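Interim report, section 4.2 (structural modelling).
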Amino acid sequence: MNKILVANRGEIALRVMHTAHKMGIQTVAIYSEADRNAPHVLFADESICIGPPPSTESYLRGDKIIEAAKKLNVEGIHPGYGFLSENAQFAESVEKNGITFIGPSPESIEIMGNKLAAKDAVKKYNIPMVPGIDQAITDVEIAKSIAEDIGFPILIKAAAGGGGKGMRVVEKIEDLEEQMNRAISEAVSSFGDGSVFIEKYISSPRHIEIQVLADEFGNTVHLFERECSVQRRHQKVVEEAPSAILTPEIRASMGNDAINVARSCNYKGAGTVEFLVDENLNYYFLEMNTRLQVEHPVTEFISGIDLVEEQIKIARGLKLGFAQKDLKIKGHALELRVYAEDPANDFLPNVGKLTKYNKPEGDGIRLDDGYAEGMDIPIYYDPMLSKLITYGSNRHEAIQKMLEAIDLYEIEGVATTLAFGKFVFKHPAFLSGQFNTHFVGKYFDSKVMKSGDPVEAELAAMLSTIVFEDNLNKLKAPKSIQSNWKQNRSTNGK
Ligand code: MV4
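Predicted structure of the assembly:
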């Protein structure tokens, strides 16, 4: 493989091309009419315009992308994340055209794309799953009896869903019929597939995922976890590796289960296995993402492995160059997603011209971005401007480095989530490691934060300390064991 096309834009297109370049591989950029002068186009050895700005007419046009690839004698296509990255048909037609798809097989993508097919595939391994059913359900009476067996609250999910779309919490049996009908019609309109199923609702979970790598010879390893609980409306904002709460034993067990999930669908390439983790550190397999994820850089920092390089080597048919025993966690990494959104205004997308753009630089600071000063941020795509990633020998150092980097990062012209990041990294709940997927909803109030002002963000974090301490006090038993939260939880009988 001497020439690859990156079927994506922005920071991830650039990030993939950097590794290709390092490996001596020629790069081809595709771009829409809105991205003519984008950094990923300027960086590539060759580039080709594939259509008008809307992604349905450009970055989602698999046919045009393959046509461009053939025209330029491309030997491999890297899909990045989003767009066509988890589209089994695209992967299949890339291969049918004699081009290597840098990713898993269409079959693996298809199995894991359907939550019920995924549950079915992992059945032969003993992987912990949320109590629930593994088949689509249409009959309300049957649903009621299953829900009563599981116990309320329950969650109705769409088999074709993912990322939180089409989920409905049901608190009591009287609400089930209406919620189920809504879930089905939502699933039909969003995914063209009305299959829904029922699970026990885990009310305050953490979201922890395991990175896996597999070659085509059946060698599969895991590269530890990423903690992704700081999110708003299913959009991750902060990620870290390793998690502040996993023990080496739970990590090894989750890692092993993640490897088996990958094996269950004959996985090859880089993939991510998502788990929910409850207050007692019980974990449950949720789904597998069959792509390189946005937050992969934190794993690269703590493992020392370039995941894109591994993807390309695997796609070239090489064996993994390391085994599980060769992998060790070193240090701690954090990622802040910098969105062009206004945290003071309910995170409304805030597009415009980047009138000032100065990047933070230094040891332990990595910035993955796809914009430059003077550029307009197009309205057509995801509003993520960049990912700010920091690394330290421990969690505290990584956090200090992040606060430093946020202060060094100057962005003017659009509101961003930089100051919101400062709120998170100063917040006592985040600092203590005791937080779950409700972090933003529980502690953040956009009214206390004036547009993009980091001082206000600090103040907001301090104010929200009151809510945090109040929560702690409600949880806590005797004063003498207050600092030992694990012990404390068991005293509480949770
Ligand atoms: C759940 C859950 C609680 N209980 N499943 C959301 C995205 C999709 N991948 C699955 N999700 C959830 N599934 C059960 N049985 C809570 C969530 C959830 C969530 C999961 C991960 C990260 C953020 C989340 C935010 C809200 C709900």
